[in-house]
Design a protein that fits this description.
Number of strands of chain A: 8
Oligomer: homodimer
Chain lengths: ~190, ~190
């Protein structure tokens, strides 16, 4: 089986290709898909996949990630990248000053499009916002604590294994394997 | 001359139709255009117009508005609506605590699409972020001061006359009138 990752991020495409080794052959297509401004990244990923499938007409996946803080009504949500570029971690910590509820989560939605339609798979890791710790990682990693350590205190390897994206991709992988198995059974 | 306003906001469409009375007949088309995540609303409005023109093939306009705070590197920018829904004015004021530079602006970009291509017109009002004052208006109006008063201290009429959107629409109106005049001259 073969599909394409539609993203402008070469790095991400390479990681995903490695993740599917032995299960699927994964190409990279760099296409700029418009991102709808829905608060739900599942909807955003699905619309990107619709757009890309209309343009390319071959099996593909798109993804989108949010960082949501409960006490801030989900902010920064799907706009995590923009918010990080502007107010950054100091801004987030300032917004949370004096708030006791520090719960937050990262969520990735992966949308897989093929002639059968579009399926969305989600992966989430739940944790809390803390003062910055650790020197690995980027973005919100130093202020997001998961099971006692911040993401910036995990090795890249460990982080890749437990990440929201890895969780969403695992669901897609399992689904593709089952589907492949069914297709083979139908043929036999 | 005749064109359509493509927006899901009926209210906005009606206001724009009134604005162009005597110059152009303005229809409302409710179409959900994907919004690219560019930091520049000129690019966002242009891409919405491209999308809508590809779908409808008739003269139309789209628009997009940003609220940009200098000391926050332009935040909340094109995501003003989402940010208002989540952290709101208290969040903005908290992020600015202790900052002396309070400059901010509202900007609207209007994109007009026709068989001649797409043109973008921009309108901006510059002011500063202050503690909330006034009871008219909505969104960031109470914390945005323009020439001594917050937008929530202006009457709706006054606000409509000086607004960023009115400024952008005036440029479009002037351009349409000039173009119309040229078309008439060609015909005579």
């Amino acid at each position: 089986m073969k599909f394409s990752v539609v993203t402008s991020n070469v790095h991400k495409a390479r990681e995903i290709a490695a993740f599917f080794k032995g299960v699927a052959e994964v190409d990279h297509i760099s296409l700029d898909c418009p991102e709808s401004r829905d608060d739900d990244i599942g909807v955003i990923a699905r619309k990107k996949a619709e757009y890309a499938y209309a343009a390319l007409g071959m099996p593909l996946m798109t993804d989108d990630t949010a960082f949501s803080i409960g006490a801030l009504r989900g902010f920064p949500g799907p706009y995590a990248a923009y918010v990080h570029r502007t107010i950054g971690n100091p801004g987030i910590l300032r917004l949370l000053e004096g708030k006791l509820d520090r719960r937050a989560y990262f969520e990735t939605a992966v949308a897989f499009a093929s002639e059968e339609g579009i399926r969305v798979f989600r992966g989430r890791i739940e944790g809390r916002v803390v003062s910055p710790r650790g020197s690995d990682g980027f973005g919100y990693d130093p202020i997001f604590e998961w099971e006692g350590r911040t993401l910036a205190e995990l090795s890249l390897d460990e982080k890749s294994r437990i990440s929201h994206r890895a969780r969403a991709l695992s669901l897609l992988k399992a689904w593709l394997e089952t589907r492949d198995f069914q297709v083979r059974q139908l043929r036999e």
